[in-house]
Structure of Glutathione S-transferase:
Amino acid sequence: MAIPTLNYFDRPGRAEASRLAFHVGGVEFKDHRFTAEEWGAEYKAKAPTGLAPWLELEDGSYIVESKAILMYAANKAGLIPKDPVDAAVAEQACSIMEACFGPTRNIYMNKEVEKAKVELAEKLAVADKVIATRQSESTGFISNAGFSYADLFVFTFLLGITGRLPDAMKTEEYPHLKKVYEAVKAYPKVAEYYKSRQ
Ligand SMILES: N[C@@H](CCC(=O)N[C@@H](CS)C(=O)NCC(=O)O)C(=O)O
């Protein structure tokens, strides 16, 4: 049986939330990873928009944009809240976290680093504040509706930044984001995924 292929670099980045969603949902997919060298030599030309990730579906068509791919994976995995408010709360968390990508990228690219650090701190503080308003006290997930793709989105952003730019964010300054991170990390299917990759 043909299965979808997720194409991305061999790092978490913008594909990790989808990888985890597929894994959590027990949805089969091919996790095709490449190095930066392979990207330049071969895959950039193959990528539909010249950017990664992209997902090739069983019928040969594709989906680009990491968030759209995550929507596909999350739908397949049953990780999209059904209630309208819960669904909006999940999207709210993703959007507010997405706003942190710009300054993070500038820090990574060594572009106006001090300015980017200030901007990142401001955006993380907003994300922490907004997530606090709906976060489940008992589970630590973004909403009382339970584990969703938004938890994976926030988790993988934090995983990326703490892994690649450990000095850019002091996690203890953002207790609600930290709580999401720890809750997702401890989620059995997620813990199992990282154990299997060791
Ligand atoms: N909005 C796109 C951004 C994709 C993107 O910027 N991908 C980067 C890696 S995270 C990339 O392909 N960089 C290689 C290049 O620009 O050649 C998404 O979310 O999928």
User: Anything to note?
Assistant: The two ends are 28 Å apart (CA to CA). The chain has two domains: 5-78, 84-187. The chain has a mean pLDDT of 96. Residues 13-14, 44, 51-53, 65-67 surround glutathione (CB under 6 Å).
